[in-house]
Amino acid sequence: MRTIPVGAAGSFVLLVTPEHLANHFKDAMLPPVLATPVMIMMMENAALNAIKPYLDATESALGTRVDVLHLVATPAGRKVTANAEVTEVEGRHVKFRINAMDGIEQIGRGSHERMVIDLAKFTARLTAKFG
User: Fold this and answer.
1) Which of 70, 85, 112, 113 is catalytic?
2) Is 36 a catalytic residue?
3) Radius of gyration over every alpha carbon of the chain, rounded to an integer in angstroms
4) Residue 99's closest CA among 83, 112, 88?
5) Model pTM?
């Protein structure tokens, strides 16, 4: 792992389609708006994209914490962009400021943390633990 600089930024873009909506993804009784777990997934992907250039080919980063406010409902057909910026790096632990915009306004914001892992070591530990 190369040094990850504070301020490194990444994004992830998604066109909201019916399978991303709360009434399809979670509960048919909910209104047809972007599901919060989908927005969070986008924010996590933006964070990973922010640090990918600094990871070795044998590394990735797992999410360890998410604290998000979902502020505004977003219907199908809107393009949502999630953004992440590195705010702190302590060894393999990386903290981010995250947000999501739907082209009109901010729909979510919060913080996120990830841990850089060695994929082979992580897989070996999983295999040893779960077979």
Assistant:
1) 70
2) yes
3) 16
4) 83
5) 0.94
Dump pLDDT digits (tens) for 71-82.
999 999 999 999
Task: List phi, psi (to 5°) of 130.
Answer: -110, -5
Which of 24, 36, 87, 93 is an active site residue? 36
Residue 131 binned pLDDT confidence (cut-offs 50, 70, 90): confident
Question: Residue 91: phi, psi to the nearest 5?
Answer: 65, -120
DSSP state of 103: S
Active site residue 112: no
User: Active site includes 3?
Assistant: no
Instruction: Give 96's contacts (C-beta < 8 A, 6+ positions apart).
Output: 47, 50, 84, 85, 86, 87, 111, 112, 113, 114
Q: For residue 25, what are its two tokens? A: 């993804």
